[in-house]
Design goal:
With 332 residues, this protein is α/β, with parallel strands linked by helices. The protein has helices spanning 2-11, 21-35, 47-52, 73-87, 104-116, 120-125, 138-152, 165-179, 204-218, 239-242, 258-264; strands at 61-67, 93-99, 127-128, 131-135, 156-159, 185-191, 224-231, 267-272, 292-300, 306-313, 318-321, 327-329. The strands form 2 sheets. Strands 1, 2, 5, 6, 7, 8, 9, 10, 11 and 12 form a 10-stranded mixed beta sheet that branches. It has a two-stranded antiparallel sheet with strand order 3-4. The chain is globular. The model has no long low-confidence stretch (mean pLDDT 88).
Length: 332
């Protein structure tokens, strides 16, 4: 195994080391290539997100997206998965998606919903929401087939069955060695972290700690990005916080296993829909809540925490950029 071999190589004698001249040359080359447009981030369709994340999705970086149930985190990552290919046609990368929460076929169903602007309920029931007595037309199904043919061509590989840390490690290593050519960009996605199977009686927090440790190793292998979905605990739903505007915003401790997640991640982002908690105005600034999703950047390794605002269009598995305000600084 790639990771294990590297560990065996160093643990028998000494850890690998490099003179500072080598990484200095590397970072200068990186800066030069970025300014010349040779090295680019994978842009997303959200301009404010790109601006906050150095242009989009970066290699050798861990992104964590968390939120309460129904916040849109899985829909966000699902649309991101295909948007990256649509918006970066000249970039060469592959997605390996550990989709532990939902069947891969249902993930594709969400993509069809997003592209066709129809709810998954309409697609799966065969009836239109505006007229429950009216079945979907043949033209709608033909359009679904047309989108499906394009989706089939994306280099996305799904793993449906939840696995252990070792199984996730082995699968990633297999892809790096056997499936994708050397030096190709691999994007590893996992939805979600708490569905990773522990060994025997391993507690959830210990399993999460081991998973984050694995991802810190993985992100240094070649050109690899990790995008993971994590879960929030129930504290943010407490009545005391709901009635106190100064306590509305999510914090580190609201993320399950927050210490492990924060240590490993370059970006920690919480998608939050205060509307779900019965909040009428959000936070000290009384931000609007109706059909709004707020993206809280709690950790930004190369920048400042911010709040980005988006419009909830989750019925079509989509999150749209909103214009009322750009970004709001938040305390670390």
């Amino acid at each position: 195994m790639i990771i294990q071999q590297a560990m065996d190589k160093t643990s028998n004698k000494i850890l690998d080391y490099r003179h500072i001249a080598e990484p200095t040359t590397e970072i200068l080359n990186y800066i030069d290539n970025r300014r010349k447009g040779i090295t680019k981030s994978l842009k997303t369709r959200w301009t404010k997100f790109n601006k906050q994340c150095m242009g989009g999705i970066e290699p050798n970086t861990i992104y964590t997206f968390a939120g309460i149930s129904g916040s849109g985190k899985s829909s966000f990552v699902n649309s991101l998965e295909t948007d990256l290919f649509d918006l970066n046609p000249t970039e060469d990368f592959v997605v390996l998606s550990f989709n532990f929460e939902m069947l891969a076929s249902r993930q594709v169903g969400r993509k069809l919903s997003y592209k066709m602007k129809k709810t998954t309920n309409e697609l799966y029931s065969g009836y239109l929401m505006e007229d429950p007595t009216s079945a979907m037309k043949d033209t709608d199904y033909e359009l679904a087939k047309e989108h499906a043919e394009k989706i089939k061509k994306y280099p996305i590989y799904y793993v449906d069955r939840p696995g252990t840390i070792d199984e996730i490690r082995n699968t990633i290593e297999y892809f790096l060695k056997r499936i994708i050519p050397a030096k190709k960009w691999l994007i590893v996605m996992l939805d979600h972290t708490l569905l990773t199977r522990g060994k025997g009686g391993d507690a959830e927090r210990e399993t999460l700690f081991q998973l984050e440790r694995l991802f810190m190793e993985v992100k240094k292998l070649g050109k690899t990005t990790v995008i993971q979905v994590s879960q929030m605990n129930r504290e943010i739903e407490n009545t005391d916080r709901i009635v106190n505007t100064s306590m509305h915003y999510p914090m580190r401790r609201d993320i399950f296993g927050g210490d492990s997640v924060f240590q490993a991640s370059d970006y920690v982002v919480v998608l939050h829909r205060p509307e779900l908690l019965g909040i009428s105005t959000y936070g000290p600034s009384n931000l609007p809540v109706k059909e709004m999703i707020y993206m809280h950047f709690l950790k930004v390794r190369e920048g400042e925490p911010k709040i980005l605002s988006f419009v909830n269009n989750l019925k079509y598995n989509s999150i749209e950029e909103s214009n009322p305000f750009d970004t709001t600084k938040i305390s670390k």
